[in-house]
Amino acid sequence: xxxxxxxxxxxxxxxxxxxxxxxxxxxxxxxxxxxxxxxxxxxxxxxxxxxxxxxxxxxxxxxxxxxxxxxxxxxxxxxxxxxxxxxxxxxxxxxxxxxxxxxxxxxxxxxxxxxxxxxxxxxxxxxxxxxxxxxxxxxxxxxxxxxxxxxxxxxxxxxxxxxxxxxxxxxxxxxxxxxxxxxxxxxxxxxxxxxxxxxxxxxxxxxxxxxxxxxxxxxxxxxxxxxxxxxxxxxxxxxxxxxxxxxxxxxxxxxxxxxxxxxxxxxxxxxxxxxxxxxxxxxxxxxxxxxxxxxxxxxxxxxxxxxxxxxxxxxxxxxxxxxxxxxxxxxxxxxxxxxxxxxxxxxxxxxxxxxxxxxxxxxxxxxxx
Length: 369
Prior knowledge:
By secondary structure, the protein is of the alpha/beta class. It is built from 16 helices and 8 strands. The strands form 2 sheets. A 4-stranded parallel sheet has the order 2-1-3-4, sandwiched between helices.
């Protein structure tokens, strides 16, 4: 069995480790490129959202490299993600590809069910071996996200931004190649120390919360590298969700570590009191949470036509007004251009900086007093 999967940020690293632990041959799709986009757009429904089109491009490239099995996540609820796998399977079959599609449905905190799903996927592996593979993959995922958060904090403050990004990329490659949890931990600690040693400026930077649909937040190729662009504009980015958050909350019921998911959902009230699919409620709740933590601004990002995020956007105006935090929404599809996105980010950061300078001016402080 030659297994493949879609890209989403740096998730390919722990997924490769997981499937290798299940004694499967892994054929990861090539990094998302213009070719990936073109393939996905060509063979996907015109009004499908961008993540589906990118997934299609990933799968076609992986199948062309010899993959015979595709692993895809399932879902339910108002978001169209729930039938991605079925649509993708039918399109690929119509194109003449011979493969097996394995859809892993989220067991919603039933850990034993997840173990059984993965054991069934593996080549004669025991439950213990499946558990060991999951633990090693989780170790890599946590290490990667520690480095991502360090980069988000350090990049806007770094004097040499190129070096900071290089350190991060080297660490990713080393973690990908690591063969044991101990090696992963050593790489992560050494890389974090190297990033901390890099010369930084002492001036305060803007803090911007990044909220929205999970795939568009986590996959840089789908959002024109928004987080890196903001870091280079001297703004610290904090994302509302990481892969480990979703795994912890939805697969393990908050067992792996303390979760703030309930707090985020409560923060969405009284603005949004019911589920709208996807991460709509989380977008609203995270915006409220960032505002209460004195962030300077919020950027909502999502695929064009994403219904849950359209609902959330309609509410963010009220949140922005009542909590006095500027919010900007960016929708992405195959026509989004990096130059146009960067211009909007630059203007937003400039506006936030002027607002911050004004609020800290002595005259305004005296007037408020």
